[in-house]
Amino acid sequence: MTIDPNAKIPESQEGTEVYNTDPLIVRSHYEIDYIHSYAQDSEFFRALGKKKLMGSKCTKCGYIFATPRGHCMMCGSETEWYQLPNEGKIHTYTTCYFGSEEFLPETPFHLILVEFEGVDSLFMARLIGAGPEDIRIGMKVRAKFKRNLKFSPTDVYFVPSPQ
Amino acid sequence: MVSGGVTKFSKATPEMDFRLSVKKAFDYALNDASIPLSEIDGSVASYFSDHFQRQVMAGAMVQDYLGLVPKPSKRIEGGGATGGLAFQTGYEEIASGRMDTCAVYGFETMSHVNTWKGNEFIAMASDMNFDYPVGGFYTGYYAMMAVRHMHEFGTTVEQLAKVSVKNHGNAMHNPYAQRPMKITVEDVRNSPMVSYPLTMLDVCTMSDGAAVAILASEEKAFELSDNPVLIRSIGTGTDAMRLADRPFGKVPLLPNETEADYRDLKYPGAHSFRAGRIAAKEAYEGAGITDPLEELDLVELHDSFTSTEIQTYEDLGLCKYGEGGLFAEEGKSALNGKVVVNPSGGLLASGHPIGATGIMQGVFMFWQLQHSIKKHFKDDALQVKNAKRGLIDSHAGTGTYVTATIMEAVK
Questions:
Q1: What is the bridge-based pairing of β-strands A64-65 and A54-58?
Q2: ipTM > 0.90 (yes/no)
Q3: Stated pTM of the model
């Protein structure tokens, strides 16, 4: 016999954080861990451990992408891995004083788009080792690599090239 | 289009959830044209982020709240251009003959999280492998575009600030606007730097709000309203999600441009929105427009940042590439200018509850072309005199989806 008209949920002492009562506004927590595969982009992240910056070259039309992609945006053909030079130039830049919650502790930081000789598209990265007033379009910058990889695109970052 | 409604956009509206916000805008629209609920054949739901909403299938909940079940509906999503895309989807529902009337409703509840978390949700609409972990901040991405535009064309921070002054000032007469302000160029430059060169007053805010547009076939439109507005043509463009992937090619020319205009310009690079140009080109072809500056009376465009407005003048061919800064400085886009741009105050001052934004533009344009601004704003100051034809422009990512829609007065 499982029917029990006196069934009762056990009470607990846990409460809900309330910010306001009219209207009723409460805290609602949510978090998640993803199982994220870098899939066809995996080699880019592995190569950073060997201090190599890898882009993609189209096997058919020869277009070279500084940010890797498995297939060419221009003609749709498969690409092959292409090692980028370690030095490039600043195509454009900004300094972020605010940002997303995840990166707020890192502000202010410099963002740059890097152009490489003989490469058709750009690469976005952080720049360190320069003040906001020092950064110029066309400035030469050099890739540096973290020793302890996080398997994030920030494992590579840029510094001003030695004068 | 036969009617429209908008809620007053604000930082947070905890007294109304998204269903009630849409209901208010929807009822306003139905009442304004005395349209019975039974006349609505179906709908398109417009909202950007399941993260902001904290509710998957939120569109379905609006559909039943409005009393539109079991009629057809779908959700459209495309970043910041969600509203513009949904508006065009409504147009397609009518144009295909599937529906005689279609309600396009948009909403976003951005106040569910604080601004920093909101920036994170928005930045998730950038490549999660290569862009988000590096920048994770859309203002940063747009700031890099602004810096390159300044480098390429000599655009100045004061020219950017002029857009902020204009749009916040226009909003002083728009009762629906979130952030009306009478400010100066100095105020803009002296406000806290968010991401160089963009200050707090160069950037739109987080908003809660809803907007509804009711579209109808030509025959139905005249049955339901004695003052409908024609949606003449639509255009949509796309570009690479990653700003870094944009090519350095040639400008897709409008009829009033020649190759000689852009001999040395590598396009779109990081300075221009190719998707905006493609959208405009398609919309102009559909409407037979060959000289947009002469043939458009007003534009409501996606000024998520002041720099975006200047870049968009050029994409839409209101001036040539490189002349956008001067266009703003010379007041050509002001209320008394050659073509009035963002008379409502735009996103900068009206607010940007993402899924509602593109539809809000449609509603404000509809009222302008109906010449009913006074009725809805209780103020005539923003009514563009002799407004016959306008363009609304909605914009996602760093110009990843852009829509352009041409609307015309009928009466």
A1: antiparallel
A2: yes
A3: 0.97
